Amino acid sequence: MNEQERCLLRELTEQLARAVRGNFTEIALSGSGGPEVDALADMIAKLVGEMKEAQEFIAALSLGRLDVDPPRRNHLISSFKQLHSNLRHLTWQTQQIAAGDLNQRVDFLGEFSVAFNSLIASLREKRLAEDRLRYVSNHDPLTDLYNRSYFTEEMERIERGRRFPVSIMLADLDGLKRVNDTLGHAVGDRLIQQAAQVIRQAVRGDDVVARIGGDEFAIILPGTDTATANEVRNRIRKGEELFNLENDSYLIGISIGIDTAEQGGSLTEALRNADKKMYEDKFARKQAGGPGRKEDE
User: What are the CA-CA distances from residue 177 to residues 153, 187, 211, 268 (Å)?
Assistant: First the structure.
């Protein structure tokens, strides 16, 4: 080995020492050596270049800069590439969770996966509890229909909407007092539940059916004119008839009043009119000797 080659080796050694210290400034070599030394110089230059790329990528990764893509064909950072990919996927999963998707699970980050999955499980439990509380606050526990509070809120919301005409139906269960007095309140509760089922089966899925009192029900029928609301009443009557044909211990009788509000009309006024018509129907049914006769009040 001549003096020129020894000088080049010292310069290449210094280049490597600087790279180890994090200094990737290129050293201008003093000349050229033989083929073997020149090949070594080329490999060291490539190694230092890859070390510089790796250092820049790892520094960005340590700062959470997941937008910085890993350099290609750089084997020094293979494990960091996998970490980068995992963190990107974890970021996407976190965004899905923020959007309400709690069906996320992590299985690729060791102890962090355990903590993450435990957090998701807790969030699911919290959501279920909130959903249950929301449901309970909006529904009648006996019939599973909406309650008066929800009915009032929907009246206000639908009145501000555009699905007119809106028909309001009030229904009162006839004969409940007689059933309670003669057969007991447990049977009276079953009567209420079965009447609620008859009403529910007669309406659409997006209609609002609520129990607003002991034996009182109210139905909001958006986008429904008087003729169509009368068809709903006929379906309730048919449901009554079918139930009463199959049961002889007690009968379902439902007095019904309907009123329709056109665009710009007041649903509160329609509710009052429906209430008045319901009592007129109850009186007519009593006069005819139906389930709502006087002694059943």
Answer: 30, 11, 17, 28
